[in-house]
Amino acid sequence: MKIINEKGKLFGVINIIDLIVIIILVLIVGGGVKRAKAKLEVVGEKGKALITIEISDVKKPIADGFDTGQNLYFQDKDSLIGEIIDIDVKPYTKNILSGGKWHSKEVPDKYVATLTVMADVTETSEVIIVGGEEVRIGVKYKVKAKKTTASGTVFGVEVQ
To answer: Side-chain half-sphere of 57: how many Cα atoms within 13 Å?
Structure first.
């Protein structure tokens, strides 16, 4: 049996050019998988930060479910944000247009919980990373504590 027959097939089964293309594709896919699995190492200064998270338009049990001294986590990744050191719960207000003027009106049975969290952070020249997640002011995150889960918006990041 010839290695390459008169039709140019390797062992009479596959064309050499097709085999080379398949090998190149396997190497590219394998390299992509290896690169995707590689963990990105963040180089930056480690420190502490006060992160202010506002959880608005929630019922009283959700607002009261956060306690000082509890750990707060990102719900999606289950990674630690930090320890809740202060909570401020106020009635939720909504701006309403009435008679051609805007009025701020309290919404019954709705509250705003403002959490201050002490977090371990890694600060680079471009981002602040908490628990493997980039934290930016104005971004909404799903957070959880021991007794409750809610969506909150970051309103402040003060690196110390």
So the answer is: 6
